[in-house]
Amino acid sequence: MKKSIFFPLLALLIACNNNTSQPPQTQEVNNIKIGILEKADPALDSIIAPGTQAEIISEGYDWSEGPVWVESQKMLLFSDVPRDTIFKWTEGKRKEVYLTPSGYTDTVKRGGEMGSNGLTLDREGRLVLCQCGNRQIARMDAPIDKPEPKYVSLANSYKGKKFNSPNDVVFNSKGEIFFTDPPYGLEKQMDDPKKEMPYQGVFKVKTNGEVILVTDTLTRPNGIAFLPGEKTLIIANSDPAKPNWYAFDVGDNDQFTHPRIFHSAAGYDKSLKGLPDGMKIDKNGNVFAAGPGGIWIFNKDGKLLGKYRVPDATSNCALSGDEKTLFITNDMYILRLKMRQ
Q1: What is the pTM of this model?
Q2: Distance CA 87, CA 80 (A)
C-alpha cells in the first residue's frame, strides 16, 4: 500500500482506538497494528517473516528511547528522556514506572532533555545508563529487580572537560564501555554555555576507568554497536546533512582505523520523520537501525535488506533474548515486532 494512503488511514485507526477520557500519560492501547514491512532483498525473509506487522504495546510518552530487554526479568526497560524517567514493560503488568529521576539528580532546576537515554546491562547484569542531565555514564547502585535512583559514576569527563550529554552505550566482551556524546541533552545544545568540548566525541572507558577518545570527526554521533567479533564498531550520525552510519575497524592498543560509511541515508525523503539513531545487531550481524521513516535492516556488509516503516520517528530498538522479537521506541509509542516463530 502506498505511503500516502497508508499513513493517513493508520492515523485515523489509532485516533479511533485511543481512550480520550484519560490523560495521555496514562493511556494504554490494545495491541493496535502499525507500520508496514518493505523488502529490498530476498534475504530479509529469513529475518522477518513476510507480512509481519508490529503492534503498539504501550503509549503516552514524550520521547521514548534507549530500550534494553532484561531476559532474567522478562521485562523491557526504556527511557522517557524529557520526563527523566525509566519505564518498565512486562507482558502481565504492561507499563510501570521503574526509576525516577533517571538522568538528572542535581537540585538546580533546568529544562531540556535531562533524563536517561541509552540503557544497557554490564556483565553482572547491572543497569548502566547514559545520563543526559548529569552528563555521565553511570551504573544504578541497586539490584535490577529493586531499582533505586542511586548512581555510581563510571565516566563523566575527558582530559578535565565534562562530556556534553552521553547518548548511547555498548559494552564489549572485556567489559569496556563505548559511548557517543552529542549535544542533545544540553539545554541550548551546541550553543549552550556549559558545553566544554569543541566536538561531539565517541569514547571508550577501559576497565580501569581510563577514558579514550575513539573519534571526534562525527558531527552528531548517536547509536553505537559492534558487529559480531567486535572487530568493527558501527556508529550512527544523526545529522540531516550527513545522515550516515559509519564503521571503524577496532584494533589492539586502542586503535580505531579505516573510518568509512557503512551505509548512507543521503537523499532520503525529507517528509519522513527521524534520522540515523539507535541500533542493535544480532548474532548473525544483521543490523536493526533507527533511521528516516522507521527501522532500517542491513546485513553485516552494510547492504540494505529492508525497512520497517512507521509514521512517527523511531529512536532505537532492542532484541529479545532469542532474537525473534524486536522492540521499537517510536516517539510516544512502544512497538513489538514478532519477526518470526
Answers
A1: 0.91
A2: 7
